[in-house]
Amino acid sequence: MTERIRELIEKLAEAHSLALSEYQELVEAQCPEAANLLAEKAIAVRRAIYGNAVYVRGLIEISNICRNDCLYCGIRRSNAHCERYRLSEEEILACGEEGYRLGFRTFVLQGGEDPFFTDQVLCRIVTALKTAHPDCAVTLSMGERSRESYQKLREAGADRYLLRHETADQEHYGKLHPAEMRFENRMRCLRDLRELGYQVGCGFMVGSPGQTSHTLAEDLKFIQEFKPDMCGIGPFVPHKDTPFREHSAGTLEQTCYLLSIIRLIHPPVLLPATTALGTIHPEGRELGILAGANVVMPNLSPVSVRKKYELYDNKICTGEESAQCKDCLSARVASVGYEIVTDRGDIKK
Length: 349
Prior knowledge:
14 helices, alpha/beta, single chain, 349 residues
């Protein structure tokens, strides 16, 4: 690690911002020594805000039916090999009941852009969850919708919305998505969500096809300026039934390096150690926590559908990532010096 990179890390830790060219320098200078210094500083700022708490969210994957045809995604519209499913309203609410019994106080409803989930249907589900569990937060991750739709869902009781921006570079966005999906619309959605009072999450895949040190620098600059409440990043993992089936996966090392940088950019951010990290390395989530992450999202979905929500190959879908094995997850988090907390886990500003 050069003295220049050490200076950039010190500057980021103090000012929580760098110039675009400086972010690119930092990305290109990745090495074990720089990663260790970034992680040390990321852990210090996270501990100052959150102590040793790692928040858990109960993930409910409500449908793998999607109208979109994103080139990287295993549940893309044109994948004829995907075994489709959709949970009923009763099944979704039952998942919430089970999660509440297990101690979860945040539910994340995630799905493809399934036309079945109209505003009327989704509002009814959100309201039912909030009525049954008024002390819980409801997070939605249901893709691009109109401002009017987001407003109705907010009025129905939705607290948070996760929508990965995927890349802050317009040209790169076009390489990952079909022509009918527009970078401008993705950014419009994020702005609308923020203006409507949601806690908003964005994020991107590490090592996605076409990604460069410059596009990553643009992602980091976007996060600096947007200041999301949550930021989900995980390694790109290819799926066998997509055009990117032969593309290499993102790495654990680069993902953890970027987790530390994001923690320093926006210290209060809620930062997951993702399932994808756990997929590419047996201790991926623990290593993510040691790099600055403070959220894990075990699965509350019915066991019968977990394998079907396959965004990428070999996704871990039974065992310790499941909500029912929260004690196992607690033990793993404790093994690296942290404590699972099951309250709402709102961002601390």
